[in-house]
From TrEMBL, chain A:
InterPro entries: PDH/Transketolase, THDP-binding, Transketo_C/PFOR_II, Transketolase-like_Pyr-bd. It holds the Pfam family Transket_pyr. It comes from Plantactinospora alkalitolerans. This is Transketolase. Residues 1-162 form the Transketolase-like pyrimidine-binding domain. CDD domains: TPP_PYR_DXS_TK_like. PANTHER family: PYRUVATE DEHYDROGENASE E1 COMPONENT, TRANSKETOLASE-LIKE PYRIMIDINE-BINDING DOMAIN-CONTAINING PROTEIN.
UniProtKB/TrEMBL annotation, chain B:
This is Transketolase. Residues 30-226 form the Transketolase N-terminal domain. It comes from the Bacteria. The lineage of its organism: Bacteria, Bacillati, Actinomycetota, Actinomycetes, Micromonosporales. Pfam families: Transketolase_N.
Length: 298, 235
C-alpha cells in the first residue's frame, strides 16, 4: 500500500498544482523524484511533526490541498493538538496518510505502534477515515480525497486482503447468511481473517474500507426488521477494540441488539515479534476471531 | 512607568484606541499601555500591512497571524479602528452572542487570519502560509506572526524557527513581544534564538512607533526576519 500511495501521490503532484506533500523525513527518499520536479510543493520539514501539521494548515489556508504523511503514531498521536487546532479549528482540511498503524511496526516496539489513531480522530470534527484492505483500493481513495478540502485520514497497512473491493465506501455484503443471521462487520484488512474465522457459520459478513462517516443507513438496512430475537452484530476492526461501538449504537438506537466489538487491546504488551504474532495475541487472527465470535453467538 | 519621554515616543497611537479598549474591558483604571501588543499592532496595521477590510480576502494581501491569542483586546481594538468590523462588537466581549472572545476565532471575526489561544501554533501556520503563497507564485504578500516571549517556551516554535532559517524562508517575519514573562527567561536574549538559525533580528523599544517600523522594514531579501519588541515587564 505504501508503494501504491507513493506512485499515486507522485502522479497527483504532477497533475494537480493544488496538491502539496508535507513530510517529516519519513518516506522522503521515496518522494525524491517528485521533490526534484516540485520543490515548492514537496516539503520535508525534517523530524518536526508539529511543524508538519502546522505547515499543512498554513498551506490549506492559502488554498492548497496538503497531503501529510508519516507513521501513524507521529501523524496522529503525537500531533493530536495540531490536528485539532491547525486543521479543525481553522476550518481547513488535509489528507493525512499514515503507515505503521496498530502493530504493523511491531518489531520496533510500542513507540512505533498506534492502535488508537482512529479513536483519537473520533474526538475531532468531521474526519473521513479510510482503512483500505488492499493496495488497489488506495489510488481511488487518495485521488478522491485530493479533489476536495475536507479532512481525510488514509490509514495504510502492511496487512491486506486477497482481493480489492474499491466500491466498499459503504457496507458491502461479502458473504450472505440466512435471513436474520448474525451480522459481522469487517473493516479494512480484517476482512480475510474474518472470512476464514466464520467458515461454516451462518452469518452475514459485510465489509467497508471507510468506517467514517460510518454507514449507519447501510447497517440499519442489513439488520432489517428485527426478528423476535435481538439481532447479533459483531464488529471487527484493525485498531482499538470498540472504536466504532458508539457508531453502531447510534445507528441502531431504538433497535434491540447485541454487540461484540473486537479489535486491538489497550494493554502495552511490551513484546516485539511480527504483526502476525500481535494479531494472535490480540485475538485477531482467524482462530482467535472464531473463538470470540462462537462464544458470543452460542 | 509613563514619563513625558515615553509618552512622546508613543506619538502616533490614535486617541480613539483608548476608548475602544475601554469598551472591551470596562477597565477605566489601566492605561492603554497595559496592553503589551498595542503599539506593535497599531504600527503593523497603520504602516506595514497591505491589508484592509476591502482586501481581507484577497489572495495577494499580507497576512498577520496573532499567535499569542490570549489577551486580544488590543487586536480587536485595532481591527475595529481600521474598520474590519463594527465598533459595537466590542461591547459584549465573550458574551453568548459575541463574535469576539478571549481568544480570537478566524471563522467569526473578519480580518482574523487564524484562531489561536493555545500557544505555539501561529509560527507553524505562518511558515505553511508563506510556503503556500510561494508555491502559487504569490511573491508580493508577506507573512507576519506575533508571539510572546513566554510563548517561546513552547517547543513547536523552535521547529518553525529552525526550519524557516535553514530553508531561507524570506517572506516571513516574526514579532516577539518581550514583556519578560517567560518563567525561566531567555538567557542571551530572544533574538539569538532566531539568529543562530539564520534569521536576521532587531531588538527595539516596543512602544516606539518609528523604531518598530524601521525594524520591521530593515530586513534582507534572503532571510526570515524577527523583531523583538521590548515592553514593560508584565506586572
Amino acid at each position: 500500500m505504501r508503494d501504491t500511495f507513493t506512485e499515486t501521490a507522485t502522479a497527483l503532484l504532477d497533475d494537480d498544482p493544488r496538491t502539496a506533500l508535507v513530510l517529516a523525513d519519513i518516506s522522503a527518499s521515496s518522494f525524491a523524484p517528485a521533490a526534484g520536479r516540485h520543490p515548492d510543493r514537496v516539503l520535508n520539514v525534517g523530524i518536526r511533526e508539529q511543524l508538519m501539521v502546522g505547515v499543512a494548515g498554513g498551506l490549506a489556508l492559502t488554498g492548497l490541498r496538503p497531503i501529510v504523511h508519516s507513521y501513524a503514531t507521529f501523524a496522529v498521536d503525537r500531533v493530536y493538538e495540531q490536528l485539532k487546532l491547525d486543521l479543525d479549528h481553522q476550518g481547513v482540511g488535509a489528507v493525512v496518510v499514515s503507515v505503521g498503524a496498530s502493530y504493523d511496526g511491531s518489531s520496533m516496539g510500542r513507540t512505533h505502534m498506534s492502535p488508537g489513531d482512529v479513536a483519537l480522530l473520533d474526538t475531532l470534527t468531521d474526519w473521513t477515515v479510510h482503512v483500505p484492505g488492499h493496495p488497489d483500493e488506495v489510488p481511488a481513495l487518495l485521488r478522491a480525497a485530493a479533489n476536495h478540502d475536507d479532512r481525510v485520514y488514509l490509514r495504510l497497512s502492511t496487512a491486506t486482503n486477497d482481493l480489492p473491493r474499491p466500491a466498499a465506501g459503504r457496507l458491502m455484503v461479502v458473504h450472505r447468511g440466512t435471513v436474520g443471521a448474525p451480522l459481522v462487520l469487517a473493516v479494512g484488512p480484517m476482512l480475510d481473517p474474518v472470512l476464514h474465522a466464520v467458515t461454516g457459520l451462518d452469518v452475514t459478513v459485510a465489509y467497508t474500507h471507510t468506517p467514517r462517516p460510518f454507514d449507519a443507513a447501510g447497517l440499519r438496512e442489513l439488520v432489517g426488521t428485527p426478528s423476535p430475537a435481538a439481532p447479533a452484530v459483531v464488529l471487527v476492526e484493525p485498531y482499538l477494540a470498540g472504536t466504532s461501538s458508539a457508531e453502531v449504537s447510534g445507528a441502531l438506537a431504538g433497535v434491540p441488539h447485541r454487540l461484540l466489538a473486537l479489535g486491538v487491546g489497550r494493554t502495552d504488551l511490551r513484546r516485539y515479534g511480527s504483526p502476525a504474532d500481535h494479531a494472535r495475541w490480540h485475538g485477531l487472527d482467524a482462530p482467535g476471531l472464531r473463538r470470540s465470535i462462537s462464544a458470543f453467538l452460542d | 512607568m509613563v514619563t513625558p519621554a515615553t509618552r512622546n515616543r508613543r506619538a502616533g497611537r490614535p486617541a480613539r484606541l483608548g476608548p475602544l479598549l475601554r469598551r472591551l474591558t470596562g477597565d477605566e483604571k489601566h492605561a492603554p499601555s497595559a496592553h503589551s501588543t498595542l503599539d506593535v499592532l497599531w504600527v503593523l496595521y497603520d504602516r506595514i500591512l497591505r491589508v484592509s477590510p476591502e482586501t481581507a480576502d484577497s489572495p495577494d494581501r499580507d497576512r498577520f497571524l496573532l499567535s499569542k491569542g490570549h489577551g486580544p483586546a488590543a487586536y480587536y481594538a485595532v481591527l475595529a479602528a481600521k474598520g474590519f468590523f463594527p465598533e459595537d462588537w466590542l461591547d459584549d466581549l465573550a458574551g453568548p452572542e459575541s463574535r469576539l472572545g478571549h481568544h480570537p476565532d478566524r471563522t467569526l471575526v473578519p480580518g482574523v487570519e487564524i484562531g489561536t489561544g493555545s500557544l505555539g501554533h501561529g509560527l507553524g501556520l505562518g511558515v505553511g502560509t508563506a510556503l503556500g503563497l510561494r508555491a502559487q507564485g504569490l511573491d508580493l504578500p508577506r507573512v507576519y506572526v506575533l508571539l510572546g516571549d513566554a510563548e517561546l517556551d513552547e517547543g513547536s516554535n523552535h521547529e518553525a524557527i529552525a526550519y524557516a532559517g535553514a530553508t531561507g524562508l524570506a517572506t516571513i517575519s516574526a514579532i516577539v513581544i518581550d514583556n519578560q514573562s517567560a518563567s525561566h527567561g531567555w538567557p542571551g536574549g530572544i533574538a539569538s534564538r532566531f539568529t543562530v538559525h539564520g534569521w536576521t533580528a532587531h531588538t527595539v523599544d516596543g512602544r516606539n512607533h518609528d523604531a518598530i517600523e524601521t525594524a520591521l522594514t530593515s530586513r534582507r531579501p534572503d532571510r526570515p526576519h524577527v523583531v523583538v519588541a521590548v515592553v514593560e515587564p508584565k506586572e
